[in-house]
Amino acid sequence: MSYFAAALVRADGSWSAQEVDLDEVEDLEAVADLLRDLAGNGPGPAVLLLEADDEYVGVVRVDGGAGTLREPRVFLSDRRAAYTNDRAALLLEDIDSDDDDLDLDDDDDDDDEDSGPVVEPAGDPALLDDLGVTAEALLALCAEEGRLPADVLTELCLRTGCHDALERLREA
C-alpha cells in the first residue's frame, strides 16, 4: 500500500515539514519519539499527518519541550482501516477508551447492506483544537462524501497554518 506521511513541527511561529518513512517504525511510541526528536527542545507541537491509498487520514500529535515527555494524541478518520492496514493499526494500538472498542480480530461486518459507507473515527478528534481545527470540524471533514484523505490533509494544513510547509514538501 502506498502512503504519504509528513511530520510538521512549529517553532518560533513557523512550520517546517519533512516526509517520514514509516516502514521501519514498530509502534506508536516510536512515532512519538520521532516527532519529539524533530521538535527538539521547542514546545512544538509536532504533528504527523498520514494518508494511505485514499482510505484514511491519521494524525499523531506530540507537545513538549525540554524535559517534557507527553503522551502522543492520535486520531484516525476510519477505525476500519486498522483491519487491513498495518500503519492504521499501529496508530490505534494504544488507544484506550470506553468509546473506542476496536477488536482487530473481529471479522463480523454488521453494516446494513442498504446503507453507504459509514465513517468510524477513533482517537482524539480534539487534538488540533488549539490550532484552529475543532473536533467537530475534523469529524465533518473526514465524513464529507467525496472528500479524499489528501484533500482532508490539505484542509487541515490550511486551517492550522502549516499549508506552505506541506506544499514545499510536496513540491520537493
Brief descriptors of the model:
172 residues; 28% helix; 6-stranded antiparallel β-sheet; 8 strands; 23% strand; alpha+beta; globular; two-stranded antiparallel ribbon; 5 helices
Would you give an account of this structure?
With 172 residues, the chain is α+β, with helices and mostly antiparallel strands. The chain has 5 helices and 8 strands, in the order E-E-H-E-E-E-E-E-H-E-H-H-H.
Counted by DSSP, the helix tally is 5
Major sheet: 6 strands, antiparallel
Low-confidence stretches: 96-114
Spatial gap, N to C terminus: 22 Å
Number of strands: 8
- The succession of helices and strands, N to C, reads EEHEEEEEHEHHH
Structural class comes to: alpha+beta
Summarize this structure briefly.
This protein is of the alpha+beta class. 28% of the residues lie in helices and 23% in strands. It contains five helices and eight strands.
List the helices and strands and how they pair.
Layout: E1 3-11, E2 14-19, H1 28-39, E3 46-52, E4 56-62, E5 64-65, E6 68-69, E7 73-76, H2 86-92, E8 122-123, H3 135-143, H4 149-160, H5 163-171
Antiparallel strand pairs: 1-2, 1-3, 3-4, 4-7, 5-6, 7-8
